[in-house]
Design brief:
Length: about 375
């Protein structure tokens, strides 16, 4: 019997992305799956029901009731999880350990969960890397927000009223979101610097036309992530960064450490030393923020400096973000679907290291 793939409307506040697009729906059907979606699934990302129907999906209000494989963006509420088919497989940004009730519901229902935030970040996994694809959209949108809030042009302009100097933009963190922010700010004509405690990011920043800001502190860690700084390293970093910020017009913060609160990089004292009219956009607001004064989901002004802590920026670009996310999920699903049926190869590290609750390679 063909695998039934079910996708329901997202219910999280402000979430417009979808886990299935008409494109990936068509591919799943071609792979031998039966696809069921709730009516209105793609409305927030401007994918009409008719497009899903044309792609081979059945429109059903109870799309998840008999689903063997459930695809989602945000984790479903505990009550939705409790109503899923026992033993079903769920794939998405599930964060099972962030909510005790959700984790308990997954265990009690006997579900096989694949939280893609746990996916190993290897070369083979790049086509399934939802964190990277969504971070790219977030970095892009963050710079557009900064440009809107800044009381200055980003590019240099020569006008009859004189020459306007370009804005100076500093991007903190050179992961996917930071690199996209650097590229976007450069396209808008700003003078751009990138700061990251991992020295290996210098080449990436410079390849995008940015200048690498070297503060003399390195926190190169394992797996491409930064390690935590010592107290002495952090103090020196902050002293040098605080001096540099006095000449910066816009700061975009993107630094994050997986599974931990965002590192505090910009102190209140640093903000106080910035020029009135400066802008900080803190992408790390969802995990506490890189700026000490960031208020998640709010925009505040302190001593003439505007600090924005936007949440779920990827959802602002819902259509393209959904296209990337849905392709990530489709590529992962193809590790699970063989000849129209679910099959799990627990010797595959992408499955074994992503699944929750954790299993041994033998599936015990």
């Amino acid at each position: 019997m063909a695998v039934i793939v079910g996708v329901a409307r997202e219910t999280a506040a402000g979430e417009r992305r979808v886990a299935l697009t008409p494109e990936t729906c068509r591919k799943l059907v071609a792979a031998g799956c039966t696809v069921q979606v709730q009516p209105g699934l793609g409305a927030g990302a401007f994918f009409a029901d008719a497009l899903y129907a044309e792609a081979g999906a059945a429109l059903r209000e109870d799309a998840l009731a008999a689903a063997d494989l459930v695809l989602c963006v945000q984790p479903p509420p505990a009550e939705v999880i409790a109503a899923l088919k026992p033993g079903a497989t769920v794939v998405g940004l599930l964060q099972p350990q962030a909510d005790a009730a959700r984790g308990q519901a997954i265990r009690e229902r006997g579900l096989l969960a694949f939280p893609l935030e746990r996916l190993p970040r290897t070369t083979r996994a790049q086509a399934m890397d939802v964190l990277s694809s969504q971070a790219g959209m977030a970095g892009y949108k963050a710079v557009l927000i900064a440009a809107e809030l800044a009381p200055r042009f980003f590019p240099m302009l020569t006008t009859a009223a004189g020459t306007i100097r370009p804005s100076k933009v500093l991007v903190v963190g050179a992961g996917v979101a930071g690199l996209q922010a650097i590229a976007t700010a450069r396209r808008l004509g700003a003078q751009v610097e990138g700061f990251d405690v991992r020295p290996e990011t210098r080449e990436q920043i410079e390849s995008l036309g940015g200048r690498f800001l070297d503060l003399g502190v390195s926190a190169a860690g394992e797996g491409g992530y930064a390690r935590a700084l010592t107290d002495e390293e952090r103090a020196e970093q902050q002293r040098r960064l605080g001096e540099h910020l006095k000449g910066i017009d816009v700061v975009v913060c993107t630094a994050a450490v997986p599974g931990r609160p965002a590192p505090k990089i910009l102190s209140a004292a640093m903000v106080d030393g910035m020029k009135p009219g400066s802008v900080i956009v803190d992408l790390a607001a969802e995990t506490g923020g890189n700026c000490e004064l960031t208020r998640p989901g709010e925009r505040v002004e302190v001593a003439g400096v505007t600090i924005a802590g936007p949440l779920n920026l990827a959802s602002l670009g819902a259509q393209h973000a959904s296209e990337m996310y849905a392709r990530n999920l489709y590529n992962f699903a193809m590790l699970l679907v063989k000849d129209g049926a679910l099959a799990f190869d627990w010797d595959d590290e992408l499955l074994a290291r992503t699944v929750w609750p954790e299993r041994t390679a033998a599936g015990a």
